[in-house]
Write a structure and sequence with these properties.
Largest sheet: 5 strands, mixed
Number of strands: 7
Radius of gyration: 26 Å
Helix content: 40-55%
Number of helices: 13
Structural class: alpha/beta
Strand content: 5-15%
Length: 369
């Protein structure tokens, strides 16, 4: 006799979890179980009760601010559990009523129908490295805001730096020589300067921690190999691997590019083909660092001293892929610019192909990793 399966939909929030059950079979009942507390102890009590029914349990919930604690707890107990992206959950046209109970019922129903696709759940160490790179990203944003605030303050009072670049040692010396006309303004100015220095030191500390901790990571070989590519620094490589995990989990380079939202959107019908800007779906953190890395290909292809140092000890196959990427992307960058394409479009197109070369390098080092 075939064992009965119960699909359990969980609508997870900070202080509550709404639970819905869908029995296997096309005509199986979909019903609301109720609302429990948002802690794991409350969920485990419900799980033990459901186990008493003798059915095989399959859980599903949406990715959100509560993280993967429920997923790891259930899978460690041997249960089948998936996490799904809210943006990829099918929705009925015209359905204007949304609440926690209906969301849980919908999850259970769609999971039973096989219409939900699980997202990648990182390991505990992978998530820790992701938190570190995201912490550095937040520090960089705070640094940028503090710098803009200071420059705006100086501009209001007629102070303009005539040097070549801001935040160089010469610029910092210029800031130290500024004297405001009123003590209150001088205090405000010094606090702005201190804020810039504090955020800069914070970025440096986090960058140092990334460099130190990546050496003990199981994916460190992939991080090192990706740095063979021009523009892909330690931070770019670590962010990419921390956010995406093993790149070889994607079946093709096209799948990776689509996941990162770097492919053009399309709205075609019949003989009419309309393509727009990139979809911007998937992981925005990796898309951002790839856009920044792609700007390095505006120069001619060459292996600088910095790049040669990163290439030391890497397999020959990886070095060949990296050089092939340089030749193609540097040439393509110049051709697109010469054709009148906007700089942003060219950089985006370069970032899309850069992701493909990253996938190729990950596949090349797979036997050795």
């Amino acid at each position: 006799m075939k064992k009965r399966i119960t699909f359990v939909g969980l609508d997870v929030h900070k202080n509550s979890i709404d639970i819905a059950l869908a029995d296997s079979g096309r005509d199986g009942e979909v019903r609301s179980y109720g609302t429990i507390g948002g802690d794991l102890d409350s969920l485990h009590k419900v799980v033990r009760k459901l186990q008493g029914t003798g059915a095989t349990l399959r859980f599903v919930y949406e990715a959100g601010p509560c993280g993967y604690e429920i997923y790891r707890s259930l899978t460690n107990q041997g249960f089948d559990c998936i996490v799904v992206a809210p943006s990829l959950i099918p929705k009925k046209s015209g359905d204007r009523i949304k609440n926690d109970r209906r969301d849980a019922l919908n999850l259970a129903r769609l999971h039973r129908a096989g219409e939900l696709k699980a997202i990648y759940v990182p390991t505990v160490f992978d998530e820790a490295m992701r938190d570190l790179t995201r912490g550095r990203e937040d520090a960089v944003k705070a640094q940028r805001v503090s710098r803009q605030t200071l420059l705006s303050f100086l501009l209001r009072h007629g102070h303009r730096y005539s040097g070549k670049s801001n935040w160089s040692q010469a610029h910092m010396n210029w800031l130290a020589d500024i004297k405001m006309p009123h003590p209150a303004q001088q205090i405000a100015f010094q606090e702005y300067v201190h804020a810039v220095k504090e955020q800069t030191e914070r970025v440096q500390r986090l960058t140092g921690q990334v460099q130190e901790l990546v050496s003990s990571w199981k994916l460190e070989p992939m991080v090192k190999a990706l740095q063979a590519l021009r523009g892909v620094s330690l931070v770019v490589a670590t962010t990419t691997v921390a956010e995406l995990g093993d790149l070889t989990r994607f079946d093709s380079a096209k799948q990776l590019m689509a996941y990162l939202g770097l492919v053009p959107s399309e709205h075609s019908s019949g003989n009419t083909v309309k393509r727009g800007g990139i979809t911007k779906t998937g992981n925005g953190h990796v898309r951002r660092v790839l856009i920044e890395a792609a700007d390095a290909y505006k120069h001619q292809a060459r292996e600088t001293r910095t790049l040669l140092a990163r290439l030391e000890g890497l397999p020959q196959e990886v070095r060949k892929i990296a050089w092939k990427a340089q030749v193609r992307l540097c040439g393509r960058y110049r051709k697109l610019i010469a054709r009148g394409k906007s700089r942003n479009s060219v950089i985006t197109a370069t970032a899309r192909e850069l992701a493909a070369f990253m996938w190729a390098i990950a596949c090349a080092i797979l036997p050795a990793s």
